[in-house]
Amino acid sequence: MPVPRPKIPIAPVLSRASFSLARGGRPASVLDAGQVRKVTSGRVAIAMALRQMGVGTGDEVLVPAYHSPSMVPPVLWCGATPIFYRIGADASVDLDDVAAKTGPATRALMVTHYFGFPQDLAAIRAFCDARGLQLLEDCAHCFFGTHQGRPVGSWGDYAIASSMKFFPVYEGGCLVSARHRLDAVKLRPSGPGFEAKAALATLENSFSHGRLPILDAMLRLPLRLKDAAWTTLKSRRAAASGAAAALAPASSDSGFEFEPRWIDRRSAWFSRAVMACASTGRIAALRRRHYLALAEAARGLPGCRPLFPVLPEGVVPWQCPLVFDDPEGVFERLQAAGVPLVRFAQVRWPGVDGATCVNSAMLARRVLALPCHQELREDELAWIAGQLRAALHVQASAA
Length: 399
Known about the structure:
Aspartate Aminotransferase, domain 2; alpha/beta; 3-stranded antiparallel β-sheet; 38% helix
């Protein structure tokens, strides 16, 4: 009898274990880097950081060629022009190319810590200081961790983070600054509809992956009634106004859109409460353990290697990125099996291609990232590792 395919969450989902204590204490995070404002997404935080930097019309912002397309619209919203710089084959910043592309109109350098692994921040900070550039530290993949004994996020003039990549919440991001005060950044609530959406979507995502079964059974009927009532309400609002405004930003549903109306909006109370109560020690310890387990499962497999073969002390990964010789064949097999995957930067800003940066195009094509978050169960992690081995052995046999 075939083993049923598990429905594995690609991102953390709420469970009873989310709040259990873990040994090792509280890990450092971007929240320790400086003043913090908790907003609805990382891309909104990028726009707010650029605004705080004074970036405007006629300015240029250096953006990595290896990027999510959601990173670019905040630059355009400020009236600035994105200039794309190259990265190395290991996703490190190519400072020689950054220097070549720095001109009189360059105001800021955006640096991304891919998959949770910090860049060489001391060298990048010195580069920016020598040229009068402001540094925007993109910690969307790197909420927790340290570099040379300092929390991630503390090297930039400003830093941004995406809390929903690390905590079991539906929405959330952070604007942080170690060098500038954020007293002038005043956040306002987004209303009861947004608050309800943030809480209920978090719970429903948890229920859909088999977590919190008792609460799921208790709320099943009320949630069905809620769905029916909300469908009716949306249809009425759409009929009256021609369109129904979304209760939450597109980023919460993995969309790439940038919606300026969410700027200066506070993250939902439910999300902030989960972040305050969740065991951060557990998050860091399990993500590291799961990363090492997946990297070990990939060791020695044909046509596969970890992008980051060593997990340094202080690094808390977002995903486990693996580099494949034949990514398409593996992707098709893993996707058909139901393994959740991330192909970061597979879609990039129009015009950013191999001519812009050969390594960006290579990594976007060849890297498949497996989940290593703290809410994976041991049997789910073992199943993912088994599917990876099976997919690569089938491919090797076919070759």
